[in-house]
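Quick sanity check, Transportin-3:
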Amino acid sequence: MAAEVQVTELEQVYRAVHTLYNDSNSIPMSDKQAASSWLNDFQRSVKAWEIADQLLHKKMDLYSCYFGAHTLRTKIQGFFHELPLEAHLSLRDSLLQHIAAISSDTDHIIVTQLCLAVAHLILQASTWADPISHLLGTFGSDPSHWWPVVEILTLLPEEVHSRKLHLGENRRHQVNAQLESASPNVLNFLRQCLTVSLGNSAPPGVPTDLLKVSILKCFASWVTSNPDCFCNDRQGEVLRYAVENLRSGKAGQKIHTASTDCICAVIEVVPDIDASSNNNALELQSFQLNLYTSIISFEEAYHYSVAEEDQDKVMNYCRIFTEYGESMIPYMLRSWRDPHYSINIINYILICEGHHDYDVAELTFGFWYRLSEDLYHAHDESLNAVFRSFAQRLVVALYKHCQMEPDHEGPLTSSDEFYEFRRKASELVEDIMFIVNSQQAFQELGQLFIMENSWECKESALFLLYHVARSIDTRDSTVIGPIVEAVLNFTDWRHISLKISAIRFLGGMSAWLAKHPDDVLEKTMNFLVNSLPATECSSTAAAALQNVCQQCADHIAGRYINNLLTIVGQLDTYNVCNDAVVGLLKGVGHVVGTLPRDQLSQIIRQICWAQLHPLNQLCDTDASSPYQKGTKSDPTFWIDRLAALFRNTSVQNSRDGTMVEHPCKPAICEDVWPVISKVLNKYQADSRVMERVCRCVRYAVRCVGRHSHPFLEPLVMQLVALYGAHHHSCFLYLGSILVDEYGEDAQCVEGLLQMLAAFIPPTFAILNEPSGLRNHPDTVDDFFRLCTRFLQRCPIALLKSDILSTLVTYATQATQLDHREANMSVVKFLFDLVHAGRRHNDLACFAERKTLVRNTMMQHGPNLITMLIHGVIFQLPTYTIGDICELLYEIKEMMPKEYASWIENALKQLPENTPAGTQAATLTQLESFHKQATGARSPKELSRSLKDFCRLYR
C-alpha cells in the first residue's frame, strides 16, 4: 500500500490541503472553495487509496495527516468495492502500521479517523479471519498501543449497525457472531487495561486517563452486544470501577460521564437479560438488586454535586435515575398489590425534579412519558392509585419550574428556551392527568392562583390550568365555576404574561362555557373582546374568542350575534394583528353557520364585502406598485380572512335533506369570484399570492359545493392559462379540488379532462429537466393528486383516455423520488389505478373498468414491479415501504399469476453482492421472499417481509 506514486500528484494534494486549511487571510475564499471541491473529487478517485496511505506515512503536517486518515476512512466506508479481494490484507497491514505509530501526542481527530477505518475494514473484509484476536495478539502485550485498540473495539458494536456501510443482513449476522464469540477475550483485555491504568506499572507515555475513559466507553459499547457476558462478569472490575467513580463523585468530568454511559448501558440491557431463557433466575435477581443498590447509593454524591454547582455531574446522576426508572417500568407495573422495589427510584427522580434548574427536570420527562403511556394502556385504576402521589408531586414541581423570572419583561416568545420547556412541561401535565385526578389538580392550581401574591406564581398556575382544563368534567360547576369567576374578577394585571395566560385559560374553558352559558359566557366574551386592542394580547384573545365561538356557537348566535358583528366590523380600528383577525373570523364562521338562511346570506355578504372592497382597490391600483408583506397593501392580508370565513362556515341541509340554494352562494359567486379573478390576473407571477388565492377558492368551493357551478368554467380556463405561463403547482392542487367536487357530474367530466390534458405539457416539461422530479416535488405531489381524483370520481373517463399510458409511465419513474409527500401521492395514484379494477364490483361499469385496468397493468406492470422492489431496497427510505406494499398487495389481489411472475423477474435483476462485496441474498433467501411476497395475506404481512428482505442489501 505504501508504494510510491508520482510526486506531482502528491504535491498537488498537499497544495490543495494547505489552501483549504490555511487560516491566512491572504488566501481568497474562492480558492478555498475550489480546493475543497477538488479534494472531494479526488477522494472519489481510485488513486486516492495510495496517496492517502502515503500522506500518513510521510507525516508532513497535521492537516495532511488528517486528510489522509479521513480519505482512507471515506474510501473504506463508501468505496470498498473498488479494491480487489487480494488487496484487502495489504490494506489491513498498512492500516495496522498507522495504528502502531499512534502515540499520546497524536491528534485525537486523526486517531478517530484511523480507528474508524480499521473498524470498517473489519466489518467489511470477510478475508480478515478472526480480526479481534489478530488485533489483541498484535497489540495486546504493549500498553503504548492499548488506547487506539480500545477505540477500535469500541466502534465495532456501534458501526455494525451503520446503514452507511451497506453490510447486508447476512454479513451483519456473521459479524455479530464474531463479536459474541470474542466477548470473553475483549472483557479480559479491558480488565488488563484497567488494572495497568489504575496501578503504578503503566510505562511512560501511556495516556492512562484517556485509556480509563476509553475502557469505560468500550465496556458500554460491548455490553449491548453481549449483555450476558458483560453483566454476568463475576469479577466485574470495570463495572465496579464505574460505580465507585459515581458513588464518590470526585472523578474528573470525562471519567464521570464515561462511568455514567457505562451504567446506563447496563441499565438498558437489564430487560433483555431478563427476557433471555439462558439466565439463572437467582443470579439475575441478585444482579438486578445489586444494580439498584448501587444506583440509590449515588444520592449523596448527587447532593454534593448540587452543592458544588457541578451541573454536568448533576445531569449525569439525573440521567442514571431516569433511565433506570424507565427500564424498570415493566417491573413496576406487574402488580399493584406487591409493588416492585424499583418503584422507589421515582423518589430519586422527584429529587431531581426539585433541582432549581429546569434543564435537570426536563431530563426526567422521558420516564414520565413512558410511565403514563404504559399506565394508560394498562387501564387499571388500582395501578393508577399506586403512582398517584408521585404524579401529584410532579405537578407541584412543574408548577414551580414553569414560573417565570420576577424581573422578566414582556411575554415569552417561541425562540426562548424556557418557552420550549414550558411547552413540554404542559404536554406532560396533560399526559398524567388521568393518574392525578384532573378535578383535584384543577382545584389546587386554582387555589394557587387565588392565594399566591406574586404575578409569576399566579401566571404559572393559570398556564397549567389551561392544560388541566382539557381533562376536566365539563358538567361540574362547584369546582370550576368559582375559579373561572376569580379570573374574570381579577384586575391586577401587573404583567402582560399574566394577562395572556388568563386569556388562554378562558379560551380553554370554552367547552365548559357551552355547558354553563348562563353563568359567565357574556362576561367571558366581554373580557376577551376588551383584550383585543392590546397588541401583545390580541392574537391570544382572538384565538380564545375563536374557541368560545366554536363551542358556544348556538348560544352566541341567539344572544350576542349583533355584538359579535360589531366587533368584526371594528377590528381594523383596533391595533390587532391580522393573524388574530383571521383567528376570530374562524370563530365567526362557526357562529353564522347556525343562523337562519336568509339572515346568514346577508351577514356573509356583509363580512365578505368588508374584505373585498380593499382587495378590489388593490387590483385597481398601478400593476407595478409593490406591496409590503403583512400589511393592508398585501393582497393575502384580505384573502386569508376570506379563506378562514369560508373554511369554518358550515351550513346544515334542510330537514328533508335538500338545499335549494346555498345561502353563501350569492356572496361567493357574485361578490367574491369577480374580485378573486382580478387578483389571479394581477398577481399571477407571485407564487405566494397564488397559493393563498387557491387556498381561498378551495374553501369557497368546499363551502358551497356544486353551488359554485356558475364560476367553474371561467375558473378552469383561467387556471389553465395561468399554469401554462407560470407553472405554480397550487393550480394543480386547486384543479384536484374541482375534480373532487364535480368529477361525478357527467356534464363536467369532459371539461375537467381537458383541463388535465392542458396541464400535462407544462408539467412534464418541468419534470423532464435534469433532476426535474427531485427539484419539483410539489409539482409531482399536486399533479398526481389531481390524477388520483379522476380515478376516484370518474375512473372510466381517465382509464379510456389517451393520456393514461403517459401518466403511468411518469408515475413509475416518480416512485423513485425520495420525498415523503410526493412519493405518497404517486403511489396513491398507482394504487387507485389498480383498485379501480376491483372496487364497486356491483356496478354496471365494473367489467369495463376491470378490463381497462388489466390492459394497462399488462403493459406497465413488469417495469413498475421492478422499479418498486429495487427502489425500496436501494433508494427509498424505509417509511415508503408501507404505502408501496399496499400497492403491491393490490396488484397481487387483482392479478396473482402475473404478479408472481413480475416479482420473480424483479428478483432476478438484483445484484448478487452488497456494495461491500459480500453476498447479499442467497438463492434460498430469494426463493423465501418470493414465497412470502406471493403468499402474503395482508399488506402489513407483505411489508414485514419486504423490510426483512431489504436488510439483506443494506
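Posting the structure with no commentary besides this: Residues 459 and 540 are 15 Å apart (CA to CA).
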